[in-house]
Amino acid sequence: MGKITAAITAVGGYIPDYVLTNQILETMVDTNDEWITTRTGIKERRILKEEGKGTSFLAIQAANDLIKKNGIDPAGIDMVIMATATPDMPVAVTGVYVATQIGAVNAFSYDLTAACSSFLYGMSIASSYIESGRYKKVLLIGADKMSSIIDYEDRTTCIIFGDGAGAVLFEPNPEGYGLRDEILKSDGIGRQSLKIDAGGSILPANEETVRNKQHYVFQDGKTVFKFAVSNMADVSERIMQRNNLTGDDVDWLVPHQANKRIIDATAKRMGLPEEKVMINIHKYGNTTSATLPLCLVDYEKQLKKGDNLVFASFGGGFTWGSVYLKWAYDPK
Ligand code: UT7
Predict the structure, then answer these.
(1) Environment class of 89 (CB within 10 Å of its CB; exposed 0-12, middle 13-18, buried 19+)
(2) How confident is the model over 146-177, as pLDDT tens digits?
(3) Catalytic positions, please?
(4) Roughly how many angstroms between the first and final C-alpha of the chain, as a whole number?
């Protein structure tokens, strides 16, 4: 019998109803639709407006969408990995609450944080548990309520991010479908380029940090952009070479949705035409841990068994990487 691989067998997603358009942002900060569109590719993003609802709410909706669409018994799920940069609260694990709420009563759960690469790293972890034979059904959720850490008076960040969640189920596959290879990287050089200064163990929140808005995301966009463009393209090209894949062999690039220009540069280096690139940044913005699974949700009906997918991401830390995965099912 061949090696057991970990295949994605189901996907689900959720985005909140409220649509924050570029036109609305024009009334909030000094920006304009033309700048946002040409510099980022974003036209609108979704925001979870209801008070008292956090990332878990988004994650629960996404997981329930997956469960309902695919007739899955949540009691059969062995573990729930919650990829997020915006947990409901410190210490209390968000994934544990999510698992309980969706009825995954026999699962254990934990949160995984690697900024915008959280979901990509989670794919590696979920697959490793499956490949080892230890667990049979691993639910990986990527969810972020970015609006909870964004300053809506800062035009350099508030135009970029949005809220959303996506979930995928990993199961063993004896025919070689699923995750085939990965290149995961990180470099602490990025620590100061994308961060929240206050609220952590170095600088706990206090009146002054709140007054200085240090509980919001800070991004040195230019630096992050430079590293993102070269590194996301590098790992994507390397994973193709390592697996003897040409641009013709790759059916889809599934890229982190941070900036359309970063995505275009990666696709170009891989020799892929636009039709092979999953894009939803125009309607959701950057949903951090949710971008990759939300791409799968949006494109699921176009995916065929055996399609070669290359995932790529880049995020704070810095964290980045690429995953090569063979799609395991035809449209259901
Ligand atoms: O997902 C995690 C990883 N994150 C990323 O990958 C994000 C990487 N960075 C980026 O996507 C881009 O750097 C941004 C979209 C954040 C910014 O785009 P940019 O082309 O790098 O712009 P910039 O920061 O170089 O700013 C250019 C100009 C500046 O004005 P001056 O100094 O040339 O007069 C900014 O003040 O654009 C100005 N600007 C804006 N103008 C209108 C900055 N933000 C805005 C805005 N509207 N929202």
Answers:
(1) exposed
(2) 999 999 999 999 999 999 999 999 999 999 99
(3) 116, 256, 286
(4) 28
Considering only CA atoms, which of 105, 108, 110 is closest in space to residue 76? 105
Looking at the CA of residue 221, tell me the nearest atom of ligand 1: 13
Q: Which pTM does this prediction carry?
A: 0.97
**Candidate of 45, 225, 292 to mutate for ligand 1, largest count of ligand atoms within 8 Å of Cβ:** 225
Give mean pLDDT, residues 66-77: 98
Q: What are the two backbone dihedrals, phi and then psi, of residue 184, each rounded to the nearest 5 degrees?
A: -115, 135
pLDDT digits (tens, 9 = 90+) for 247-282: 999 999 999 999 999 999 999 999 999 999 999 999
Task: Beginning with the edge strand found earlier in the chain, give each strand of the sheet holding 138-145 in spatial order.
Answer: 5-14, 163-173, 138-145, 79-83, 108-112
Domains of the chain: 5-176 (3.40.47.10), 180-326 (3.40.47.10)
Q: Which amino acid is residue 262, in one-letter code?
A: I
The pLDDT value recorded for residue 1 is 53
3 pLDDT tier (thresholds 50, 70, 90)? confident
